[in-house]
Write a structure and sequence with these properties.
Layout (H helix, E strand, L loop, with lengths): L3 H12 L2 E6 L6 H9 L4 E7 L4 H8 L7 E5 L6 H6 L4 E4 L15 H18 L4 E4 L4 H14 L8 E3 L2 H15 L10 E3 L6 E3 L11 H12 L1 H9 L7 H19 L4 E8 L10 E9 L2 E5 L7 H26 L2
Helix pairs in contact: 2-10, 5-6, 6-11, 7-8
Subunit structure: Homodimer.
InterPro entries: L-lactate/malate_DH, Lactate/malate_DH_C, Lactate/malate_DH_N, Lactate_DH/Glyco_Ohase_4_C, Malate_DH_AS, Malate_DH_type1, NAD(P)-bd_dom_sf
Pfam families: Ldh_1_C, Ldh_1_N
């Protein structure tokens, strides 16, 4: 017989089925991300959309025995995108082109900006109340694009728009564990700022590893900031970080769903509309946020940091402001 706690947990999972949509489900991130979402017991209705291949991915995943229905949608069918988004609770956007050797996330802007803009318009029309999780790079610019599109449609809710920066956090945990020879599952590194190069700031001074020598610390920070380059180089033109990004996206999506369910103390980092540096003209900033039924419940300050991290933060804000403005102008001046 189930205990009272077990019955309540079972009942909650049955009462709160969630509809989740992946836009770009056939891509390098989209496929493993969709797999991980299929395995998530909170997801009972999984919609997969892409220009092609979504039906095949959906058919493949539908054979996995979890309590969710998977459907694929493409532009070839009437209102395919609209059907994929209809009354969905959470939208994940990994759509776009991957990085190639020598490319930065900003190099992707000219292609991915248009893709994200058009998908955001569809979200505004068909799922205006959904939580929107942006994975498509450059996140520092694509999140502001989504915000401007939603504003233009009169449905912008800053509490439900997220840039997924979780990959920076899981990399930080893994990389610091390799330096310190610890269990990576026990490492917790707060990463703030943005999601590209020098805008990524791992707050090592807030970890238990405060005594790293300067050379080791500098190398670790650089690796966290530019870890994606390792994958791009290793794949030799065949793509960028897809599997680790899928894991990061699924982890953050699960946190958002947990917040929507009303679970307490769900705290994750994210690039969100933030008051922390608005006085300096920076509308979005990544930091830890408390997630709840309405989306963002609380945005945490950066906290006490070292003088070195203060310098990193100053450089971050210079670049971040330009990235954000680039995304906003892409929509407003179109």
């Amino acid at each position: 017989m189930l205990s009272r706690v077990a019955r309540r947990a079972f009942s909650t999972s049955r009462i709160n089925p969630y509809k989740v949509t992946v836009l770009g489900a056939g891509g390098g991130i989209g496929q493993p991300l969709s797999l991980l979402l299929k395995l998530n017991h909170k997801v009972t209705d999984l919609r997969l959309y892409d220009l092609k291949g979504a039906h095949g991915v959906a058919a493949d995943l539908s054979h996995i025995p979890t309590n969710s229905v998977v459907k694929g949608f493409t532009p070839e069918e009437k209102d395919g995108l609209k059907q994929a988004l209809d009354k969905t609770d959470v939208v994940l956007i990994p759509a776009g082109v991957p990085r190639k050797p020598g490319m930065t996330r900003d190099d992707l802007f000219s292609i991915n900006a248009s893709i994200v803009r058009d998908l955001a318009a569809a979200v505004a029309e068909s799922a205006p109340e959904a939580a929107v999780l942006v994975i498509s790079n450059p996140v520092n610019s694509t999140v502001p694009i989504v915000a401007e599109v939603l504003k233009s449609k009169g449905v912008y809710n800053p509490k439900k728009l997220f840039g997924v920066t979780t990959l920076d956090v899981i990399r930080a945990s893994r990389f610091i564990s390799q330096v310190e020879n610890t269990d990576p599952t026990t490492e917790h590194v707060t990463v703030v700022g943005g999601h590209s190069g020098i805008t990524i700031i791992p707050l090592l001074s807030q970890t238990k590893h405060k005594m790293l020598d300067k050379e080791t610390r500098d190398a670790l920070i650089h690796r966290i900031q530019f870890g994606g380059d390792e994958v791009v180089k290793a794949k030799n033109g065949a793509g960028s970080a897809t599997l680790s990004m899928a894991q990061a996206g699924a982890k953050f999506a699960n946190a958002v769903l947990a917040g929507l369910e009303g679970e307490r103390d769900v705290i994750q980092p994210s690039f969100v509309d933030s008051p922390l540096y608005k006085s300096e003209g920076i509308d979005f900033f990544a930091s830890k946020v408390l997630l709840g039924p309405q989306g963002v419940e609380k945005i945490f300050p950066v906290g006490e940091i070292s003088s070195e991290e203060e310098e990193l933060l100053a450089k971050c804000k210079e670049t971040l402001k330009k990235n954000i403005e680039k995304g906003e102008k892409f929509v407003t001046q179109a």
